[in-house]
Every structure is written in C-alpha cells, then in structure tokens.
Amino acid sequence: MVSDNSYVEYLIESKASPIVKAGSYIALVLAVVFFLSSILTPLGIAGLILCVLFGALYYFLTLNANIEFEYQYCDREITIDKILNKSRRKNVAKYDVNKIEVFAPSRSYHLDEYRNKTLKVLDFSAREKDRQPDPTYTFIYDGKERVIIEPDQEFVAAVKSVAPRKVFTD
To answer: Quick one: which of 59, 67, 139 has its CA closest to 96?
Structure first.
C-alpha cells in the first residue's frame, strides 16, 4: 500500500500535431528561401526581415512540436509539468486531491454524470486517438475542469490510497 506522503512521478511524450510539423517545415523552407533571395535578388533588407520572421516561427513551432508531460504526486497534490523540446520545463497545473470529485478511466461510467456539463477541458495526455485499451484517465476538479491525463498504474494506486472513494480503475 502506498502511504499518504508518497512520491510518484510519470513522464509521457505527447504526439505532435501534423499541422504543427508541416508548418515548421514550411517555415524553415521559407526562411531559407528569403535568406537566399535577400542575397541574390534585389529584395535586400525586406528579404532578411522575412527570413528572421520565418526563422522565429520555425523556432516556436519546433519548440511546441516536441512536448512531454510529467505527472507528479506528492503529499495529496498532483502537479503537471510541460517539458518543451526536452529542455524547458513549465509548471502547468497543481491539483489538490481533496478537491477532485472523481478520478476514473476516460470511458468509465463513473464519469457519465459529467458528460453533459460544460467544463473547461485540459488535455495533458499523449493525444493519440483510438488506442486500445484506452490508457487515459479523466478527473473532474472542483466542478470546473475536466483534466485528461495518461498515468501508469503506480500513479493511480498512489492517488487511490488517499482518496479511495473518488478513484476508480474499472
């Protein structure tokens, strides 16, 4: 059994959107084209400015193309960090387990009463559609947010040890 002050962490890599991947390649190609055109044609400084703009667009798109989420459970608190391009970490959210209403697999019947409610949806999963069996869990936080995560069984067991009536594994 996991104790009340246990520490569990789990890291999951999120799949990048094909639109973001395609946009980053297009931005890179346009940056190179405008750089070469600023040298070889009379575009000059305008071509160089466009090169810098598309280079910056490429940087931000590639930064958001490689995203990982780290879930941490410690002292009745779930913390979710977003890791951009395996180098920059950003704390995205903190959730107190006492304010979680229900924590269950995403297709569970325990979430049926929340299906028609308009809640803010936060997806911190791998974003891979139609995986069988569905590894995602959804928890309703404070009646305001529907949070989708993809934890392992150790993480779920740690949360279940402190809130057994709120966590379901069916």
So the answer is: 139
